[in-house]
């Protein structure tokens, strides 16, 4: 998933990018509103994080411009915390509002909440080598075999297979599949990974979920 971060303060852009990339997102960077629009003309991001006070186009103006692209959720990031500023931001079309200074974890929580609201977690169909995941029918097809998985196994496999070769941190998988307010332990993730591996075992020469020690898991496709 690609997230566009727009702020004329390069330090803020770098800070936000570090945490987003650490959570598995791709980051597009822009340092004013006009540059952001140029990027959007070439690549539609899954979400935009927009600062209010910027040269050329301020955050309110940029938000209104981005609203021409119905599929782009917007999170406004600003030093202003007054009620009228928030009202203006929501009137322009922002989906949420975070005031600087912010906690990186809170920013990630809000990003994930917006993406869930827009159902941006995955495409309707995911193809990873011989594996085909149908998000509408909840069917998983692998070669000539069709699976109907329990919901959490299905969501976990969908997330992993959406980016083959990408390493997903354990904490991110728990937050994305079980929700950031999940209070259980990591053993739940271990159990679900084991169940998925049991189902994938006959096809291990084609696809596999590999453990990255000390980090998390990655879905691998073998040509």
Radius of gyration: 19 Å
- Under the CATH scheme, the architecture of the largest domain is 3-Layer(aba) Sandwich
Report the sheet-strand fraction: 15-25%
Number of helices: 8
Global shape: elongated
Could you give the distance between the termini? 24 Å
| CATH classification, class level of the largest domain | Alpha Beta
Number of strands: 12
Strand order of the largest sheet: 2-1-3-4-5
What structural class is derived from the secondary structure elements? alpha/beta
Supply the CATH superfamily name of the largest domain. Response regulator
Tell me roughly what share of residues is in helical segments: 25-40%
Low-confidence stretches: none
Order of helices and strands: EHEHEHEHEHEEEEHEHHEE
Residue-averaged pLDDT: 86
Count of discrete structural domains: 2
Looking at CATH, which topology of the largest domain would you report? Rossmann fold
Tell me about the largest β-sheet: 5 strands, parallel
Quick description:
This protein has 223 residues and is of the alpha/beta class. Helices cover 40% and strands 25% of the residues. The chain has helices at residues 10-22, 33-42, 59-66, 83-92, 104-117, 151-161, 170-178, 187-200; strands at residues 2-6, 26-30, 47-51, 74-78, 96-99, 125-128, 131-134, 139-142, 145-148, 167-169, 207-212, 216-221.
